[in-house]
Amino acid sequence: MNIVLLSGGSGKRLWPLSNDVRSKQFLKLLCDEDGNHESMVQRVYRQIVHAGIDADIVVATSAAQVESIRGQLRNDVDIVVEPERRNTFPAIVLAASYLESRKMMNPEETVIVLPVDPYVDVAYFETFGKMDERVQQGDADIVLMGITPSYPSEKYGYILQGAEGKVTGFKEKPDEASAQKLIDQGALWNAGVFAFKLKYLMGIADKYVKDRDFSSVVEHYAQLKKDSFDYEVVEKANSLAVIPYDGSWKDIGTWNTLSEEMKEQSIGDVIMGEECVNTHVINELSIPVVALGTQNLVIAAGQDGILVSDKHKSSYIKPYVENIDKRPMYEERRWGEYKVYDYSQYTDGTKSLTKHVTINAGCAQDYHVHRFKDEVITVVNGQGELVVDGCLMKLSRGDTVSVRRGQKHGIRAIQDLQLISVQISEDSTEGDTEVLDWSWASDSGSCQN
Amino acid sequence: MNIVLLSGGSGKRLWPLSNDVRSKQFLKLLCDEDGNHESMVQRVYRQIVHAGIDADIVVATSAAQVESIRGQLRNDVDIVVEPERRNTFPAIVLAASYLESRKMMNPEETVIVLPVDPYVDVAYFETFGKMDERVQQGDADIVLMGITPSYPSEKYGYILQGAEGKVTGFKEKPDEASAQKLIDQGALWNAGVFAFKLKYLMGIADKYVKDRDFSSVVEHYAQLKKDSFDYEVVEKANSLAVIPYDGSWKDIGTWNTLSEEMKEQSIGDVIMGEECVNTHVINELSIPVVALGTQNLVIAAGQDGILVSDKHKSSYIKPYVENIDKRPMYEERRWGEYKVYDYSQYTDGTKSLTKHVTINAGCAQDYHVHRFKDEVITVVNGQGELVVDGCLMKLSRGDTVSVRRGQKHGIRAIQDLQLISVQISEDSTEGDTEVLDWSWASDSGSCQN
Predict the structure, then answer these.
(1) Is the ipTM here above 0.85?
(2) DSSP secondary structure letters along B11-34
């Protein structure tokens, strides 16, 4: 069995902690069994392992999320990068092609596809075995997971089932009365979890791409229809079956629903007066948040901004924050993270960017070059190595190095390395980073420091 | 006539914007007639000028406030620095001594003493003329200002008056019924505004200090009784008179009362959802604050922290913030201002401090030296000059200079100068600044840069 996790949706519904590069699934606001904070992605990965599922895991996502996934799941998963965002059908074909041509998976094997961020019990993952069995039984092209409904919701899709779990139809977002009737007839919510034999999907892929090898699918990605997997595959299948899951299943995409699942009233440097009622505070800043006499509030403070919202109003955040066009002020990277302290543009168009950069011990930035940016790096803690134009310099606390535009450079951390970087550029700084191969720097001798 | 403004009370009732070096009277949250933001201190100074009072103004304060006062009132006032904080009697004697021995004021002239931050109409200052006249009339040692009470408050002191405005007694904080009786008898609130002839107070000073010359009073300041002016002078006077002021007089020492006087619902980068009711937001940070569906809240975000408080609960802030022992993250200085981006202490005890410093055009820092701190300065905007150990260097954008411990240095701005300073010290950094005389640097030639 192979598992494909679809990691989508950059977005601002959990602003200021989620932004264009940090989707909600990467926020470490939940707790594992030992009380350590974990993200939705980490929770799902932990649950899959805990459920004892023997499967390789592939995450299909956009380039923007790769650093976050590597930072949170290390090398425990494979990552397939969508060349552009096109909807779930192309993303799943891409992942399937990767499994076939790179992982050499047996075409008879089962692939299970699910969103990366369901908030569920471990039992959810335990149904995967039943889905696999049913796929292998061979009487259904696609096997769906169906959630046992807890109330006649108007916002979900319903799967109608007949004898032996055969799917007899679908009903999208019925009104409450119709929903109740469907439930009485044994209908289940569609959780967006699909299982199928690898060869079944690759057969469909053949209709769109001449060569189903992974590199070719990447190259001709634009030829794959920009449609959902439901529309392009599920609705066109000859036979469908459903396996029920009768446990907790929640959408925690708003501050209101997320705060309900938080174990603590507050995370971070927070002081709450005793008269605070039903208030949750999440503070990622290094300055304290004090809440006095607040009621039904969620307060979230991060590098991108500060939200103070009535809990029920928090789901209406989008129009208020979608036009905030500041650059992301915090990014998690494969090698560590950075926080932006200041980003200024001056009257003559010049920009400056001051960042606090942390590079984890043993990790390295890309070896890279800026064409329009000069940079001053000052080490405030830790030890590492800086290579500039092939010259190696040891870095330790108090060292300052000026890297001029055009100079190839990169830093490796020996111990956790913290530094202040001040960049000055005379033109647009965004995108002014050309990544080079570290091997270019690898024969670097130790130059005069 | 001379005016002495008493600028006291560092404190945290307006935390996070007020702190140990930035008292509430320096927060620019009010508006002048042209809609420009001004502080309480600036408002009072503007009103004195507007009332057409021809008087020299002396501010008596602690050393910690000198930079803020110079920054906000420039050289329009004299400043008398209390050698230590000892209460109002010593502070007023010190200011009077300054007027006598440094300003050569005629001992017959009137001195009017008031707090630096009354929130009042201009008419308040227009009563000063009447107080002066009454002092010069000679039938009262001290002339007080009495506020016409607007309700039987239990929290103020009452001045009882007889014929011709002669004071017949005082009553501190009566219960409501007694207060009403006092008001019916023509009693007035004590506003803490005193007028007297300079020679009267200096006569009292003679009881405490052998030599009433200013330098001597400074030197022997500890000999002045640590008492209030009310207790030590007013209550012991032979005859007192009162001049009524029948206008607005408010204490705006809490977020609740201050927000009532704000012309805007928000100051700074703030987005308010339309369903916010009776909410005031003050944001001094460079990241946006978004408020959705909030009611009766004050939200204040500054370099020191973030407050979210029910308005009526905001006056109970003190116990929640008094133990926050972070260093001030923002300071206004005579020459400009700085913001702290990061202040970290590492496991081996070393500290680092990263600041954004603005030096106003034409202004200069003190020439100074650190014994335990190394500093890296990177200019992000503007032009100036740096002197290091007597060597002059021109500074402009992109320049980086390392100043090692023990090196005397100081910066002057030619144009507004913005720089990032990273300081690293192996020991306690607080207090590690020895101020030197700029003249030591003044024969500096231009050294090799």
Answers:
(1) no
(2) -STTTTT--SSS-GGG---EE-TT
